[in-house]
Amino acid sequence: MSGTYLGMPAFPAAAHEAVRDRTLRGNLRHATHTIRAKRAKAVAEVSDWAALREAGRQIKDHTLRHLDRYLVQLEESVTAAGGVVHWAADADEANRIVAELVRATGESEVVKVKSMATQEIGLNEALEAEGIRAYETDLAELIVQLGKDRPSHILVPAIHRNRGEIRDIFRSEMAEWGRPAPEGLTDTPAELAEAARLHLREKFLRAKVGISGANFMVAETGTLVVVESEGNGRMCVTLPETLISVVGIEKIVPTWRDLEVFLQTLPRSSTAERMNPYTSTWTGTTDEDGPNTFHLVLLDNGRTDTLADQVGRQALRCIRCSACLNVCPVYERAGGHAYGSVYPGPIGAILSPQLRGTQSEIDASLPYASSLCGACYEVCPVAIDIPEVLVHLRERVVQGGPVTRGGNKVVLRPAKGHAAERAAMRASRWAFGHPGVLRTGQRLASRSRRFLPRTLPGPGRAWSASRDLPQVPAEPFRDWWQRTRGGKDGGDGK
Amino acid sequence: MRVALFLTCVNDTLYPDTGRAVVKLLTRLGVEVDFPMAQTCCGQAHYNTGYRHEAEPLAVKFSDVFRDYEAIVTPSGSCGAMVRELYPRMGERARAEGRGDALAATLAPVVPKTYELTEFLVDVLGVTDVGAYYPHKVTYHPTCHGLRGLGLGDRPRRLLQAVKGLELAELPGAEECCGFGGTFALKNSDVSAAMGVDKVRNAESTGAEVLCAADNSCLMHIGGTMARLRVGMRPVHIAEILASTEEEPLA
């Protein structure tokens, strides 16, 4: 699966294929179930998990409430430490800034550490158009890039691939991007890791420009933090002469002390580790150590619009741990690509329609890509009530209403394609408002029950294609009640 | 004690046996049951599909019908969670939209008095052995809204374990959603059906004759999937098992 996210079909159509792909289903099931069980164990070890979760929620909410103040403080701290801060309102502006910064160095190659923000804005494609080649250095991102694929998971972007598929990708694609895969490469993890290591070392040692994201930005010192497992990110942020970090504005925490909470909750929620193997922090520039030029591009791209929404803003608490993906039964069957965004799974279903708006077919369908089972909310380490936001966004899709887009208040019209449903909801509300009408309908169904079809026409086919219909009973409960108890202590039938 | 039975529109229309079982069970336990005929639907389908403004009048109606009862008992974790979790939220939203406290005040009285059936039995009546007899191997599926919305915990299991003759088989992946999800079952029918098949296969692996749950809508989805897959199992609502006795066994 390649190409951009634009023009993605609605979620049900995208999921239709994935549900039938046995290899994909197997890969996802194995991976999510393994990490799900490990995460539960890692979380159970912490006696004050509930308190940590609440602390994380509060720190994020406080920061978001005073985001303007902390962003200014961050800019001052970064500048004082020798860095340069750039503000990007949207994807185009961010891509333009980064491309200009790279061009100013005279380089045509950059190494990248896995960054969701740069995936979100399509930076690699934008750089490609400027004649600059970006090499992904996170192992999973490398697999995705070599496979001309798209990431399908926040933490494990190549989760949809198994070892055999990865070996084939390495064998056929590595040579085109740099050092080829070793002769006779097998699918053992050690051999695959070594092939990636040799391939990537060349890139690290040659690159003059590194591009990174960040998990956190500490306002008080202007420090950026990357949390990772491989150490490739650390190479990216220390070896090149120029470092450009592209980070969403919501990634701020006020102080170093606040990090304490997230450095406990993030690894356990994401990789089920007590502590992640590499935590790298960088603050501006330092003589003779690390990059001598540092740029921070602060990305909005729909975030302040999201912040303006009272219910939906909690999505900005997300620390990208991916625990919600790993427990989500819908993600497990549909796979990450069906979400049409760099942010898949439950968090993607509430984040993408807020960052991008609900106008496109895919974005209007995402709030419905959930059975509202609540498992995502239960595992979220910053207590984002994802089901609540999903329902809130469903309302936005079907009923329209006031939203903020591009900093302006606009009133959305209801999305197209819901007219029949809206009519049905209104009609059923009216019928439910009149018990007599409901009762007539029930009796009609009871009396004609022998003639009711086994398969339904129209939208009902979505049910009867895979499930039998229940038998309509001979007598609805309320008729039985009135027949047997009505005269005695039954209600008044009002 | 006199309680109102809130049967939910799905139970009333498609699963009247569940309602009869609740009446039989509660009466046997000495509870006086009333069924206010003016009740219809709690509005959950409307609310969860994004039609909050269609759901609001139904919530108001629910409150009008039930507010004067001591307790409201419903054999549905999902509709129970609608009243307890989401009615207060509807009130808060109305307030946030500048519509004042009227809706919140209207809905508030019914919220704490609404109990899911197993919750009512264990917490209010204080019984786990309800004197039931059901000589079958049963596996229990905790439906999502009962499990996570109401936090029913092990109450249904404790009730089932106390049933004479009943052998309880642990369901693998019990806490995973069956894939019903209201209009989700229609809007994302492929994913919904795939989830349903996995749930049924897990249930089948227990060797149980019966899959039991506390929500007929989930059972409708699971049972419909079982029928299509021609699995030798049947879905039964927990109320029917708890109502079953040696003198009057469940048919």
Features:
heterodimer; A: 494 residues; alpha/beta; 23 helices; 12 strands; globular; B: 251 residues; 4-stranded parallel β-sheet; 13 helices; 8 strands; Cys_rich_dom (chain B)
Could you please describe the fold and organization of this structure?
Chain A: Keywords: 4Fe-4S, Electron transport, Iron, Iron-sulfur, Metal-binding, Repeat, Transport. Chain A: It comes from Streptomyces cynarae. Chain A: It holds the Pfam family LutB_C. Chain A: This is LutB/LldF family L-lactate oxidation iron-sulfur protein. The complex is a heterodimer of chains A (494) and B (251). Chain A has 23 helices and twelve strands. In chain A, the strands form three sheets. Chain A has a six-stranded parallel β-sheet, with helices on both faces. In chain A, strands 8-5-6-9 form a four-stranded mixed β-sheet, with helices on both faces. The longest helix of chain A has 23 residues. The C terminus of chain A is likely disordered. Chain B has 251 residues and is of the alpha/beta class. Chain B is built from 13 helices and eight strands. In chain B, the strands form two sheets. A four-stranded parallel β-sheet of chain B has the order 2-1-3-4, with helices on both faces. A four-stranded parallel β-sheet of chain B has the order 6-5-7-8, sandwiched between helices. At the A-B interface, helix 1, helix 15, helix 18, helix 19 and helix 20 of A face helix 1, helix 2, helix 3, helix 4 and helix 5 of B.
Helix-strand blueprint:
The complex is a heterodimer of chains A (494) and B (251).
Chain A: H1 11-20, H2 22-44, H3 49-65, H4 67-80, E1 84-88, H5 91-105, E2 109-112, H6 116-121, H7 123-129, E3 133-136, H8 139-146, H9 163-177, H10 189-206, E4 209-212, E5 216-218, E6 223-228, H11 232-238, E7 242-248, E8 252-253, H12 256-270, E9 278-283, E10 293-299, H13 303-307, H14 323-327, H15 329-334, H16 345-355, H17 361-365, H18 375-379, H19 386-399, E11 401-405, E12 408-412, H20 419-433, H21 435-447, H22 461-464, H23 477-484
Parallel strand pairs in A: 1-10, 2-3, 2-4, 4-7, 5-8, 7-10
Antiparallel strand pairs in A: 5-6, 6-9, 11-12
Helix pairs in contact in A: 2-12, 3-12, 9-10, 16-19
Chain B: E1 2-5, H1 9-14, H2 16-28, E2 32-34, H3 44-49, H4 52-66, E3 71-74, H5 77-96, H6 102-107, E4 114-116, H7 117-124, E5 137-140, H8 144-149, H9 155-161, E6 167-169, H10 184-187, H11 189-204, E7 210-213, H12 216-229, E8 234-237, H13 238-243
Parallel strand pairs in B: 1-2, 1-3, 3-4, 5-6, 5-7, 7-8
